[in-house]
Amino acid sequence: MQKILGYMRKAIAEFDLLSDGDRVAVGVSGGKDSLILLKGLWRLRDFIGIDYDIVAVTEDPCFGGVPGDYSSVQKLCGEMGIEYILENSRIGEIVFDVRHEQHPCSLCARLRRGAIHNAAKKAGCNKVALGHNYDDVVETFLMNLVIEGRIGCFAPKSFLDRREITVIRPLVFAPESEVRRAAKRENLEIVKSKCPADGHTMREQMKMFIAAREREDRGFKDRIFGAMRRAGIDGWGFKG
Known about the structure:
Order of helices and strands: HEHEHEHHEHEEHHH
CATH superfamily: HUPs
Distance between the termini: 29 Å
Low-confidence stretches: none
Structural class: alpha/beta
Helix content: 40-55%
Mean pLDDT: 92
Shape: globular
Strand order of the largest sheet: 3-2-1-4-6-5
Strand content: 5-15%
CATH architecture: 3-Layer(aba) Sandwich
Radius of gyration: 17 Å
CATH topology: Rossmann fold
Number of domains: 1
Number of helices: 9
């Protein structure tokens, strides 16, 4: 977990993600990234020198019309003394049963983010923390380039003026492999996704493509990420 905390401290410092008095809603899906993000932000409060509060928020899409079991997340939040908000939604129904999306991930993610933003505002939060890791950054950049024909990515920090909320991503320097190892060492109970498209998405295909390129050409991911930073795309430039 020490490596993860180091990655998070670096991102917080470089992109100015946290300030004294912040009340942060952590989007918790129950996956390894969001759980490590939650635990990391909880631990960092003890020594990072920034005074902020944390609220954990889960927006359950209720895939198949059935609520998920997030009792393990609730238990973890109780152990850490963190307020936990769990809201059920019709997102799964809208994406798969109403819209019949062939490529559901984009719409699903957009609806879930909107729901988390609403929950954050109701909870009096001024920031929302999402668990995107280093690999997610590279994958998103390449997906936008190859599939949509545009150069861009989500930002490490972005202010949503209509919501008056700042979205931060403190895990963006942490490789997925390190997040996975940390989740195992911390004995975190992962909530298995019930999404019908899980494992069969364009992101999964891009993940496999990048892994294959990395095996053939070590450093492929780092060079893509470095190019993004040097070009200063979407807020990824070096602090300067």
